[in-house]
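Lab notebook: predicted structure, single chain.

Context: the supervisor wants predicted structures on file for every construct in the current expression panel, including those that have not yet been purified. This is the next one on the list. No modifications to the sequence; it matches the entry in the shared construct table.
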Amino acid sequence: MTTLGIIGAGHIGSQVARVAVANGYDVVIANSRGPETLAALVAELGPKARAATAEDAAAAGDAVVVTVPLGKIDRLPVEQLADKIVLDTNNYYHERDGRIEALDKGETTTAELLQRRLPTSKIAKAFNHILAADITTDGAPAGTPNRRALATAGDDAEAVAFVTRLYDEAGFDTVNIGPLSESWRAERDRPAYVIRQNAEELAANLAIANRLP
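Prediction complete. Output recorded below exactly as produced.
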């Protein structure tokens, strides 16, 4: 079974860890404060989870979820993430991250910034337009009418396929936006952001998104 590394143990990272363990994954999770601070979460997750440093989580994961603030991606362990599938949960919050001119002008995306940091990693967008609490409560079996859908984007087919599988295991349909350059469509302040929508509704909301305010 796949080992999922998770770098960032905040709201999204913790919830993805819960979903992953529930679906049989081994989880190696890290935060910025040290493995010892994750004792309670690991105890909750059970024997399929362990805490580690970011470097160790990256090295251990067959695929790795990166869920750290945009301003901290320059601290990610590039060597340990080389050639691996990396799931990017980020959104640009200028109040937190400071102003990034290339994002303000629509010249790049958060996922492309991560790709620049991790040049050989296989980046795909995931879990960035859903409230953390909904990750473990809104899923439904495949084929359920009006099943909630989540978006992904990626330049690598293997990475997109992995996200699609993980979404399905978590109880969500997938809408593929396309390349990383289009991933802005599911980010903050766009129609698809943090609302419940089925696949048809999500595709429509992605299509009507504006690049700039």
